[in-house]
Amino acid sequence: MLTSQRKKAILDALDRDGQVLAGDLSAAFGVSEDTVRRDLRELAAQGRLQRVHGGALPASAAVAPLAAREDMDVAAKQRVARKAASMIEPGQVAIVDGGTTSALLVQCLTPDLTATIVTHSPGIAVALAAHPCVEVVLIGGRLYKHSVVSVGAAAIEAMSHIHADLYFMGVTGVHASAGFSTGDYEETYVKRALAARAAETVVLACASKLNTASQFRIGGLEMAQTLVVDAGATAKQTRALEEAGLTIVRA
């Protein structure tokens, strides 16, 4: 089998099964595991998959720069954002993550909503500056330019004083075995710290992020209670996530 044929077979298997194991591929192709690992390395370098111990998972496309992500899955993100915004009750304290879906979420808040929004995203804070009834708490720290959010020790220290009702968490990947993931190491610590300060963590993800993974793991599926997905998410995509205990809300 040619290298190009093996790589296509690997990607087909990822699309079909959601993961591949190097040992199984080696046996199926009749080649050494070293050859399979080389194929996986090359596909990972092209952004086609995410390597993990023993094999690979589908790679998330949501690790592109912010400007590029603003044009991805816009209609789906808008539906997810509207559903998420409707979950905030008057008087609640809600933490809103950075990211393109979160930016749409705050645009969907009704003008008469009285609530407190805590965010480590300067863009989210500025977007809420003109809201007549929402109090805004902006967490500072080192600016992570890729997502335009504050990260680092100062941000995590500030979060320790918060008790929130909800945390709307953005991720780049949701996978039944790999959990929630993102494309930046420091962001994982910030997201874990925010989740620890909320009574309920709600993950926002359009269908393209389901059953994919990025380089850095935020945590297992148990760290969230609810997953808001767009209506384009199929039952096959969400079945394992529901079986893991997540409440799936379709927008």
Task: Jot down its keywords.
single chain; alpha/beta; Arc Repressor Mutant, subunit A; Rossmann fold; 25% strand; DeoR/GlpR family transcriptional regulator of sugar metabolism; 251 residues; 7-stranded parallel beta sheet
Describe the structure.
The chain has 251 residues and is α/β, with parallel strands linked by helices. The protein has two domains: 3-58, Winged helix-like DNA-binding domain superfamily/Winged helix DNA-binding domain (Arc Repressor Mutant, subunit A, Orthogonal Bundle), CATH 1.10.10; 66-250, Rossmann fold (3-Layer(aba) Sandwich). Helix content is 38%, strand content 25%. The chain is built from ten helices and 15 strands. It has helices at residues 3-17, 22-29, 33-45, 66-69, 74-85, 100-107, 122-128, 153-159, 185-196, 235-243, and strands at residues 20-21, 49-52, 55-58, 93-96, 115-119, 134-138, 142-144, 149-151, 164-170, 173-175, 179-182, 198-204, 216-219, 226-229, 247-250. The protein has a seven-stranded parallel β-sheet with strand order 6-5-4-9-12-14-15, sandwiched between helices. A three-stranded antiparallel β-sheet has the order 1-3-2. The chain has a three-stranded antiparallel β-sheet with strand order 10-11-13. Helix 6 (100-107) runs parallel beside helix 7 (122-128). The chain starts with a helix and ends with a strand. The mean pLDDT is 91. InterPro entries: Carb_Metab_HTH_regulators, DeoR-like_C, DeoR_HTH, NagB/RpiA_transferase-like, Tscrpt_reg_HTH_DeoR_CS, WH-like_DNA-bd_sf, WH_DNA-bd_sf. Residues 3-58 form the HTH deoR-type domain. One of its GO terms (molecular function) is DNA binding.
